[in-house]
Amino acid sequence: MLFNSYQFLIFFPVVTILYFVLPHRFRWGMLLVASCAFYMAFIPIYILILFVTIAIDYAAGLFIAGSTGRRRRWYLVASIVATCLVLAVFKYLGFFSGSLAAIAHALGLHYPAKVLNIVLPLGLSFHTFQGLSYVIEVYRGRQKPERHPGIFAVYVMFYPQLVAGPIERPQNLLHQFREAHTFDLARISDGLKLMLWGFFKKVVIADRLAIFVGEVYGAPENHSGLGLGLATVFFAIQIFCDFSGYSDIAIGAAQVMGFKLMTNFNRPYHAASISEFWKRWHISLSTWFRDYLYIPLGGNRVPRWRWQFNLFITFLVSGLWHGANWTFVIWGAIHGFYLIFSIWSQGARERVARVTGLERHRRVRTVVGVITVFVLVCFAWIFFRAENLGQALYIVQHLFVGWQATPGYVGATLAKMGVTGIDLVALGLAVGFMEFVHLRQRNREERHLFAGSRTPVRWVVWYGLVLAIVVMGVFSNNQFIYFQF
Amino acid sequence: MKRPFAYVALFVVLLTVICSALDYAVTAGLRRSEMPLYAEWNAIVSGEAGAEVLIQGSSRTWVGFSPAIIGDRLGLSCYNLGMDGYPLDMELARYRLYRKYAQKPKIIVQALDTYSLNRRDDLYQNNQFLPYLNEDAIREGVEPYDYFAWYDYSLPLVRYRGSFELVCKGVGEFFGIRHYTNEKDRGYQGQARGWSDEFERWAKEHPHGVEQKYLQSVVDDLDSFLAECSRDGIIVVLVYPPEYSEARDMVNNREEIFTIYRRLAAKYQLEFLDYSYDAMANDTAYFYNSQHLNKLGSELFSARFADSLAGLLALKGDSAAGRP
């Protein structure tokens, strides 16, 4: 079920009302049933895959907690392998097989690629990682094993974050299912506001931009360098509004029922360095890789070359996590390279700042940093959005081709992308307002949106958001980008 | 938070008031607009479309029949209700709306096409219906398309969801900030265009011609409409305006459809004027594509049709007076 669907408009209030009407001891059961219904709205049979991973992780948690020494480690490895096997079969088998076939072909060998004609189960990477974090935390002794199979199942399947996160840690979420949440209107109101904000970002900004991005990335050869560049910038805004919008709706929906999910985005395009960007973008995944891959590899407490290798591997795997396509691998590699380069160039950059006098102007330096990071991130998004590597390389090669300094060129380029004057007005207003909110919320999380403002101001904002969603929204039931992962 | 439910109720009530006010402004603005999509609907609901001779049909009608020429020739007021892109079902819905706001016409010219008895899969230019969803005739007309849901009819502003441009235009019209002009004359607009290669391309794609579907339910609707006109004492003339001859010959089941038209004409003792074999049909100078007359063609055709209609009316007058 999509958050931006009419079914969800019914589903959400029904589930929420039932949650508060039912006695606490029945709530987990209701949430489990609701989460199953939510997931089964896509492809019902895939619920079985979810049950398999839940069963593996549940059993692994108990076995690990009940054993010691090497046996304990073996249980951990077995559960990780089993869980990853599910992921490998459904997500990566075709990719690896196709890549092997391509390598074999290049070497003049015959190796037929295995084609698995199945649709990727929605959110597979998300709930798999949430399950893995539980097993690892139990192994590390930071989390007691959950003995109640129902509550463990709800932990993995909790509908607000089931298909696209935030990827929670058991320490943060599991215990919340045992707490009796009361009906607190202030909290509910905050949750609903956050959902409203998420819907605004999704249907007013992301889904409108998706039309123009799709137009260009669907046939890049029909567009000039300016069109390709604009579409890439549009995609940068689209993916942020799409994914952070989803996260806001998820966090808000959970908050309405009294659950506190972790923050997933913190104004990432305001980052003045790549490392800062990754502390602000998809935080639940970045911290997952930090805790369960980067640090176990040794983190930065190793020789310098090994530290950089660890960073690169982490980003390479992160790219692969996003999708079974070389475009994602390269996207991850680009970010890994950015980080390594930023380490190498730190001294040089400091010297440049000293020589140019930027050192004394912190604000200017921050602005230069923000713009640089945005451009670098946009460049990487080309690989993320492109259908295949060939298309991505075509776009990169043609980014500066066909530019004209003639009057009307920008207008003609936008028109070719399908952007009308009214689209520009709508997007200008919406993105402008979002940036205003970001600047205003500088030191606060988005879940406390306009919390300090006076009531009339807040009400004008909420009414404005509702009207903007109704009037300026795109209602074509566009799926969230991250559902495919 | 003190009195939380009062707070929520106040928020919802205020939201409803704001949405209703905006809905009202947009609807009122569009209902007085001269924008091409709304001008004819507005002429109908304001009663301005009321005429003695009413011409109904599809896009072939609004570009093909000049009310000025026909009205002058007959000495009667005339209006063209031709509706872009729709077959009979929506044409009849438009007529029902017309009847709500205007006196019954003396004469209805019902223009026909080979696709008149079919139904579209989509609700073409669905924005045109938004300001009139409270009209029963429109509601009944659009309901079979399953496009609008209960909330479009019941909740304020929801029908305009995603229509930012339309909302801006409606509000602009309401406050008199923007104004549009209607270039149609009593529903007609001659198209000063030459022959395009549209037909040649289409003919290449369909070397064996096409089968034009028709629905018995629409045939029944036409039958009921003719019966209603007969009861109301309205003279109905069925007309098949000229279409380019090569296109005419590419509808494989054309005779089957024409048999239905002829049967209904005979049943209600109506004239069925078929111009599909008129000499005009062989000359692309009169068309801008295979189905639509251009300005030159429509003016020539309107004059010819007006003469025929005048003759028919004279004949009817004579027979009513008992003259041979």
Summarize the structure.
The complex is a heterodimer of chains A (485) and B (324). In chain A, 69% of the residues lie in helices and 0% in strands.
Q: Would you kindly provide a written description of the structure presented here, covering whatever features stand out?
A:
The complex is a heterodimer of chains A (485) and B (324). By secondary structure, chain A is an all-alpha fold. In chain A, 69% of the residues lie in helices and 0% in strands. Chain A contains 19 helices and no strands. The radius of gyration of chain A is 23 Å and the shape is globular. The two termini of chain A are 16 Å apart. The model of chain A has no long low-confidence stretch (mean pLDDT 89). The relative contact order of chain B is 0.15. A five-stranded parallel sheet of chain B has the order 2-1-3-4-5, sandwiched between helices. In chain B, helix 4 (67-74) runs parallel beside helix 13. With 324 residues, chain B is of the alpha/beta class. Chain B has one domain (4-320): Rossmann fold (3-Layer(aba) Sandwich), CATH 3.40.50. The chains are: A mainly alpha (485), B alpha/beta (324). Chains A and B meet through helix 8, helix 18 and helix 19 of A and helix 1 and helix 8 of B.
Give the SSE map.
The complex is a heterodimer of chains A (485) and B (324).
Chain A: H1 6-21, H2 24-40, H3 47-65, H4 69-106, H5 124-139, H6 149-157, H7 170-173, H8 185-218, H9 225-256, H10 274-280, H11 283-294, H12 304-322, H13 326-344, H14 346-356, H15 362-385, H16 389-398, H17 409-417, H18 421-440, H19 455-472
Helix pairs in contact in A: 1-2, 2-6, 3-4, 3-5, 3-6, 4-5, 8-9, 8-18, 8-19, 9-15, 11-12, 12-13, 13-15, 15-16
Chain B: H1 4-30, H2 36-45, E1 53-56, H3 59-62, H4 67-74, E2 78-80, H5 88-101, E3 107-111, H6 136-142, H7 150-154, H8 164-174, H9 198-205, H10 216-232, E4 235-240, H11 245-248, H12 254-267, E5 271-274, H13 295-320
